[in-house]
Amino acid sequence: MALERTLSIIKPDATKRNITGRINAMFEEAGLRIVAQKRTRLTLEQAQAFYDVHAERSFYGELCEYMSSGPVVVQVLEGENAVALNREIMGATNPANAGEGTVRKEMGLNVQENSVHGSDSPETAAREISFFFGEVEIIA
Ligand code: ADP
Ligand code: MG
Questions:
Q1: Is 117 a catalytic residue?
Q2: 96 lines ligand 1 (CB under 6 A)
Q3: Which residues, in sequence order, are CB contacts of 68 under 8 Å at separation 6+?
Q4: How far is the CA of 111 from the centre of ligand 1 (A)?
Q5: 86: which residues sit within 8 A by CB, 6+ positions away?
Q6: What is the pLDDT of residue 78?
Q7: How far is CA 53 from CA 31, 45, 47, 118, in A?
Q8: Closest ligand by atom to 96 CA
Q9: For 118-139, what is each residue's pLDDT tens digit?
Q10: Which of 7, 76, 107, 122 is most solvent-facing, going by the fewest CB within 10 Å?
Q11: In 3-state terms, what secondary structure has residue 34?
C-alpha cells in the first residue's frame, strides 16, 4: 500500500445539478482526502490540451466542447492507493455499466456526461495534477 495522489474533476453535468457536495461525500466516506480544490471553467483550448491523449478518438471534439461548457471542480485526492481507489469509487466510464453504489451509477447521465474524471495511473496522475496545481497549492 502506498499513499498516493490522483486528479479528480467534477464535470459540468454535476456542477449544473449542484451535486458536488454529494459526490465529494462519496470520496471522503471511501477514505480519500481532498488536499487541493478549485472551481474553474476550462477554455476549449485547456480541455483539448488536458484530453490530448484522446485526440484521435471519435468523441474527442464533443468531449472537449462538453468539458468547457460549464464550471468544473478540479481537485487532488490523497489516500492509500488513491489512483485505483478513486477509479473504483467512480465506476465504469458508461454509467449503464457502472457498479451499484459508484459515483457514475448514482450520478452519471450517459457515457459522456458521467459526472467525474479520475486519473488512470500514477504516471497520468502526476501529469494531470501538475496541469492544474503547483506543489504549494496542495495542502495535506
Ligand atoms: P474514463 O473517464 O473512464 O477514463 P476515457 O478516458 O476512455 O474514460 O474517456 C474520457 C471521457 O470521454 C469519458 O469520461 C467520457 O466523458 C468521454 N467518453 C468516453 N467514451 C465516450 C463515448 N463513446 N462517447 C462519448 N464520450 C465518451
Ligand atoms: Mg481516462
A1: yes
A2: no
A3: 41, 42, 43, 44, 46, 47
A4: 6
A5: 6, 8, 27, 32, 77, 118, 119
A6: 98
A7: 29, 14, 11, 14
A8: 1
A9: 999 999 999 999 999 999 999 9
A10: 122
A11: strand
Model confidence pLDDT, tens digit, residues 65-107: 999 999 999 999 999 999 999 999 999 999 999 999 999 999 9
Burial of 122 (0-12, 13-18, 19+ CB in 10 A): middle
Determine whether the shortest distance from the Cβ of 111 to ligand 1 is under 6 A: yes
In this structure, the residue with its CA closest to atom 14 of ligand 1 is 93
Q: How far apart are CA 99 and CA 2, in angstroms?
A: 25
Residue 67 CA to ligand 2 center (angstroms) comes to 13
Amino acid at 87: R
Query: Could you tell me the three cell numbers for 31?
Result: 477514505
The DSSP annotation for 46-57 comes to HHHHHTGGGTTS
Query: Could you identify the residue written with the cell 488536499?
Result: 35
Task: Give me the phi and psi of 115, to 5 degrees please.
Answer: 75, -35
pLDDT for 16-55, tens place per residue?
A: 999 999 999 999 999 999 999 999 999 999 999 999 999 9
C-alpha cell at 96: 449503464
